Amino acid sequence: MAIGEYKPGLEGVPATQSNISYVDGQAGLLEYRGIRIEDLCKYSNFLETSYLLIFGDLPKAIQLNEFEHDITHRRRIKYRIRDMIKSFPDNAHPMDALQTSVAALGMFYPLGNFHDLDYIYQATVRLLAKVPTMVAAFHMMRQGNDPVMPRDDLDYASNFLYMLNEKVPDPLAARIFDVCLTLHAEHTVNASTFAALVTASTLTDPYAVMTSAIGTLAGPLHGGANEEVMNMLEEIGSVDNVTSYLQRKIERKEKLMGFGHRIYKVKDPRAIVLQGLVHELFDKFGHDPYYDVALELEKQAYEKLASKGIHPNVDFYSGLVYKKLGIPSNLFTTIFAIARVPGWLAHWKEQLSDNRLFRPTQMYTGLHDVTYVPINER
Q1: What is the pLDDT of residues 6-39, one digit of tens each?
Q2: Would you call 33 helix, strand, or coil by DSSP?
Q3: Angle at Cα 16 formed by Cα 132 and Cα 267, nearest 5°?
Q4: Are the C-beta atoms of residues 340 and 52 closer than 8 Å to each other?
Q5: Set 178, 205, 268, 315: catalytic member
Q6: Residue 8 gets which letter from DSSP?
Q7: pLDDT at residue 3 greater than cutoff 70
Q8: Most buried in the list 32, 236, 330, 350, measured by CB within 10 Å?
Q9: Contact 22/31 with Cβ under 8 angstroms?
Q10: pLDDT per residue over 66-102, tens digit each?
Q11: Is 345 helix (H, G, I), strand (E, B) or coil?
């Protein structure tokens, strides 16, 4: 890239150095701290993976037990936060409710010393603990119900699903949800992580950093895509309508939700794992006809778009998994946010270790020496 060359969207422009995660878009490879995502999904769990991302190494048993204990016993939220959530409009989008709640959370925990490892640790466990509680609380209260209190005897994934409807989930459902969280936990410097880095570089508090990232994730070109995928599958309706729908999208040069990625030029490895989870869910809880629509759409899209490097991304199958788990579609992006908290925190912590304020430049395309015209002469 030539010096001074303009790159729309900063595509391919290195903005930072990081050892948190690695992506090879040609090989379909994703690693967290050097460990392949497939291995973490098979052998680890979300909180162990979170520890790995944030602190750099897999924890010893005593470290993981302490980490899990500290998160479990910080799940409850202040009653003032709960009362604020109760006042939100019932038709507010859950991502807006979450962004507002996390911003408010920061007022209860003053900015501390970034060189104090205990301050970083406490903020980390607090955010991991409370973000799911706030998502579930808004979901219940917008239906006119009191929020469901978290249960200390349930693991991270089981507790969140429990707070959504006050039913302890099937162990298979909880395990699959935990894998979903692990898959979404981190993905290099994407839009929301970059927003987190820019905000972190000002040395504001971590709650403002998370608020910035959540607001960025909410967009349909980023985290909101999984919600749009389900809307697309419902719009198509049946396998018989796939051909005409896809042809119409191609002719109009419109984006096909759940396909394509800025980095991956093959099928997203996370989509491959998610597709396996779909089969596990259907084997136990019954088939979903929209999966047939998705399979046919992937097949036909492969024939027409694969040569352009357009393949299913992580959003294409995640909505089908969440739907089978009983999660409403307008909560899908908040699930993404819950999962991405450890990734954002890892980059926040890394930014603090060698901070420099982000201040990119621009290429000015406007006028010069324009004469001011008085208002009565315009």
Answers
A1: 888 888 888 999 999 999 988 999 999 999 999 9
A2: coil
A3: 65
A4: no
A5: 315
A6: G
A7: no
A8: 32
A9: yes
A10: 999 999 999 999 999 999 999 999 999 999 999 999 9
A11: helix
Query: Rounded CA gap, 218 and 240, in Å?
Result: 32
Tell the burial category of 211 from Cβ atoms under 10 Å away from its Cβ (0-12, 13-18, 19+): buried
**From CA 338, how far away is CA 132, in angstroms rounded?**
6
Chain mean position to CA 69: 24
Residue 158: both structure tokens together: 């089981």
Q: Is 139 a catalytic residue?
A: no
- Please list, in sequence order, all residues whose beta carbon lies within 8 angstroms of the beta carbon of residue 114, skipping any fewer than 6 positions away: 120, 203, 352
Give me the pLDDT at residue 5, please. 82
Residue 68 CA to residue 157 CA, distance in Å, equals 12
Q: Which of 219, 181, 182 shows the shortest CA–CA distance to 327?
A: 181
Q: What is the maximal distance between C-alpha atoms in the chain? A: 77
> What secondary structure letter does DSSP report for 93?
-
Q: Which of 139, 184, 187, 261 is catalytic?
A: 261
Separation between Cα atoms, residue 157 and residue 178, nearest integer Å: 5
CA distance 233 to 242: 9
Burial class (CB in 10 A: 0-12, 13-18, 19+), 101: buried
| Cα distances (Å, whole numbers) of residue 292 to 187, 237, 238, 287, 319 | 28, 10, 8, 9, 14
The position carrying tokens 């929209």 is 290
User: What is the per-residue pLDDT for 228?
Assistant: 86
CA torsion sign for 152, 153, 157, 162 is negative
Could you tell me if 85 and 134 are in contact, meaning their C-beta atoms sit under 8 angstroms apart? yes
What is the dihedral sign for C-alpha 286, 289, 292, 297? negative
Q: Which residues does 370 contact at the CB level (< 8 Å), separation at least 6? A: none
- Residues whose CB is less than 8 angstroms from the CB of residue 117 and which lie 6 or more positions away in sequence, other chains included: none
Give this prediction's pTM: 0.93
Query: Which residue has 């060698």 as its token pair?
Result: 354
Q: Confirm whether 315 is a catalytic residue.
A: yes
**DSSP secondary structure letters along 163-214:** HHHS-PPPHHHHHHHHHHHHHTS--SS-HHHHHHHHHHTTT--HHHHHHHHH
- Structure tokens, 1: 């890239």
